[in-house]
Each structure stands twice: as structure tokens, then as C-alpha cells.
Amino acid sequence: MVAIGSIFHIIFIISKKDISKTQDDEVGDGTTTVAVLAGELLREGEKLVNMKIHPQHIIEGWRKAKDVAKKVLNEICKLTCRFQVAII
User: Fold this and answer.
1) Among 2, 13, 70, 82, which residue's beta carbon has the most beta carbons within 10 A?
2) Average pLDDT of 45-63?
3) pLDDT tens-digit profile of 19-51?
4) Whether residues 49 and 71 fall in one domain
């Protein structure tokens, strides 16, 4: 049986390259930032799984957090800039 922690590390190693490539293709910068952010999300996700929180609940929470962050950033942009935040 493979430990959950090991699974998180395998996912990160595989995903890190894809995440960085996608960021570079789309924006041309910020590859280190997205790799670090993804690593931290996986690190925190591992802690939550170890606390017996189901991965689907963790993902749901991350999606809600993303939606709130997008809303706040768009509100800030309405006040300070011409562009809306385009976050998937």
C-alpha cells in the first residue's frame, strides 16, 4: 500500500512540470511562483488528509477559496484598473 504522503509527492513531481509549462505558455512568467504555490497547496492538502478530511472536501474548499479570491481581486480591479481578473 502506498502512503497518502507519497501519493502527494508523486502528484507534485508530475504536476510541477506541467503547471510551470502551462504558466510559461500562457503568461511567459511566474513559473516559480505557480510551482511553489502548487507545492504548498499539496503540502497543506497532505496535512488535511492526515487529519482524515476527505480529498473531495479539500478540493471543494480550494475551489470556494479561489472563487472568493477572484471576486475580491475583481472588486479591487474595478477600483484601480481597467482589467478584470481572468482566473479559471
Assistant:
1) 70
2) 88
3) 666 766 666 666 777 778 878 888 888 898 889
4) no
- How many domains, in total, are found in the chain? 2
In terms of residues, how long is the chain?
88
Q: Are residues 48 and 60 in the same domain?
A: no
Q: Both 46 and 68 in a single domain? A: no
Residue 2 has a pLDDT of 41
Shared domain for 60 and 49, answered yes or no, is no
